[in-house]
Amino acid sequence: MTGVLEIQKSAQCWTFTLNRPDKMNALNGELVEALLQGVGDAHASGARLLVFQGVGRNFSAGFDQGDLESQSDADLLLRLVRVETLLHLIASSPCLTLAFAHGRNFGAGVDLFAVCRHRCSAADASFRMPGLRFGLVLGTRRFGDVVGYAKAREILEQTRQMSASEAVSIGLVTNLVGADERPDTVTEALRIATLLDPTTQQQLYRVLDREQADKDLADLVRSASRPGLKARILAYMSER
């Protein structure tokens, strides 16, 4: 456990709670590295279910833009590569993955939610992916896989916000779940996660795996390495 990430462990279920409520659980370098380490440890332990949630007002506000002034384009590129590494690690997990979203969620926070196999949301949640406004391609193909490419294009070209009800209708959210229903939801997910033996479960996920790790990373790097990334992000922030 670290200050920015709380990890609860049992033999079969690991729960990862993003713990930066004062920053809306934005994904800074420390939190991303803690998640990478924690998820890797869960895989090594033989866990069957991984649960992701956030404390405070929301699940995650995405890529942390709070220290941009001290970052170079190269610094930002490395941080984004580590985020993409995390997304791939979770998307290709041998475990059943479950995420709970609430409040306002943005960018890489939505991507983190979307890579999980079961995606539950509070009725008041909203989702927005503004990265294309500053030329960043992150999680775009995966979002298209989840909601369909025509719908993904419509939403992303406008970088518009989605309500929880719309997210359910397009398949981004699999179930609406209140805070008091989360324990029962985890119990049911663990039941499903352990119906098959571990080898069969992993084979199932491998056969159905649509990950394109090398292409996704290349697309991200191509977009993020275009000169002026920091300036574009700062310009976007000034417009909000």
UniProtKB/TrEMBL annotation:
InterPro entries: ClpP/crotonase-like_dom_sf (IPR029045), Enoyl-CoA_hydra/iso (IPR001753). Its EC number is 4.2.1.17. CDD domains: crotonase-like (cd06558). Keywords: Lipid metabolism, Lyase. Gene3D superfamilies: 2-enoyl-CoA Hydratase, Chain A, domain 1. It comes from the Bacteria. It holds the Pfam family ECH_1. The keyword Disulfide bond does not apply. GO terms for molecular function: enoyl-CoA hydratase activity. GO terms for biological process: fatty acid beta-oxidation. It is an enzyme of class 4 (lyase). This is Putative enoyl-CoA hydratase echA6. It comes from Paraburkholderia ultramafica.
